[in-house]
Write a structure and sequence with these properties.
Blueprint: E1 7-16, H1 22-32, E2 41-48, E3 65-72, H2 76-81, H3 83-92, E4 96-106
Antiparallel strand pairs: 1-3, 1-4, 2-3
Helix pairs in contact: 1-3
């Protein structure tokens, strides 16, 4: 399969700081949803109370919020270098205790 036909699934999980207000969490999420307007992004999904493996008996509540989106592998740099995307982290990272950011190539 050619690189142009491959898709990258981008996954972001966030644990907010205990002292992050509802407004700060909402700002974080709102800024993180910038890609909904990008014509090259598909399959955007987000939600609260992320449990990475709901079928595991060791389920945890380590992650408060998460999102996934799909982009063509040929658009990865375009996504990464988008000025709006680059501004998200510096603007809202102070509200998060930690992140997990994962990218998978899916065929």
């Amino acid at each position: 399969m050619s690189d142009a036909a491959r898709t990258v699934r981008h996954v972001v999980l966030v644990r907010f700081r205990d002292d992050a207000t509802a407004e700060q969490r909402a700002e974080f999420i709102q800024r993180s949803q910038w890609s909904l307007e990008a014509e090259y992004v598909a399959g955007y999904v987000c939600g609260w109370g992320v449990d990475p493996n709901p079928y595991s008996s060791s389920a945890s509540e380590d992650w408060h919020w998460g999102m996934t989106l799909d982009i063509a592998e040929s658009d990865v740099e375009r996504y990464r270098d988008d000025p709006v995307h680059r501004a998200v982290g510096p603007a809202v990272s102070k509200y998060a205790e930690r992140y997990a950011i994962l990218d998978f190539v899916i065929d």
